[in-house]
Amino acid sequence: MLTLDKLLIEQDDFRLCADLTLKQGSCTAILGPSGAGKSTLLTTLAGFLNPTSGRLLWDGEDIMAMAPGLRPLSILFQDQNLFPHLSVAQNLGLGISPRPRLSATDHARIAKALDRVGLSGMGARKPGSLSGGQQGRVALARCLLRAKPLLLLDEPFAALGPALKADMLALVAEIADEQGTTVIMVSHDPNDAKALCSETVLLADGVAQPPRPTDDLLADPPPALAAYLGR
Ligand SMILES: Nc1ncnc2c1ncn2[C@@H]1O[C@H](COP(=O)(O)OP(=O)(O)OP(=O)(O)O)[C@@H](O)[C@H]1O
């Protein structure tokens, strides 16, 4: 269970309060107008930004004092964060260990992860020689290898066409299901929320509201969400 306990995030004159709980293994979308603080919230969960006050608990343990790399989570951004000078396999190796030299076991795990995301045999390629969709798969494979219990997605597939994006969301759902991962996904597209997330947190007017069933929220959106959806 992930608990945002009276979290207050402030940046200059921006303020966001979050007091809510996400169930283990759940998949939650974060929807809200531009500038509402969706990315800021993920950045705070990931440990790159300190909140002004409040606690962040994973399974009852306060993880706020943990450095980003030690938190029980992986984060996937739109730009995928792949190192261009490293091969796909080396990029994936960084998900397992910071050592430059990988063991035979590491190589076997990397090959299996590549296979899982449909990129068998592409380990020697450089990210620049892959399509955007393939790069997304590599980044997802790296999260798979890290095998952290929490996966944060900040619009990672926004640049992909609708069919590819749907494929990637389906793959995330499958992998999260297999690993029992708790997923939090920022998106601008309510259809993404519907496709992947049974629950949605609405961010508006400085508040992250407790999660509600996505279908209910979209069928009867509160005014801030209705305005955002153009209804
Ligand atoms: N480094 C920063 N310093 C000060 N304010 C910031 C900083 N980064 C973001 N903000 C402000 O925080 C607020 C939330 O920004 P954020 O990027 O989290 O919103 P968002 O909901 O993800 O928006 P979008 O949907 O447009 O990506 C905005 O008002 C933004 O101007």
From TrEMBL:
InterPro entries: AAA+_ATPase, ABC_SmlMolc_Importer, ABC_transporter-like_ATP-bd, P-loop_NTPase. It comes from Rhodobacter aestuarii. Keywords: ATP-binding, Cell inner membrane, Cell membrane, Membrane, Nucleotide-binding, Translocase, Transport. This is Thiamine transport system ATP-binding protein. The keyword Transferase does not apply. One of its GO terms (molecular function) is ATP binding. Gene3D superfamilies: P-loop containing nucleotide triphosphate hydrolases (3.40.50.300). Residues 2-230 form the ABC transporter domain. Pfam families: ABC_tran. The keyword Phosphoprotein does not apply.
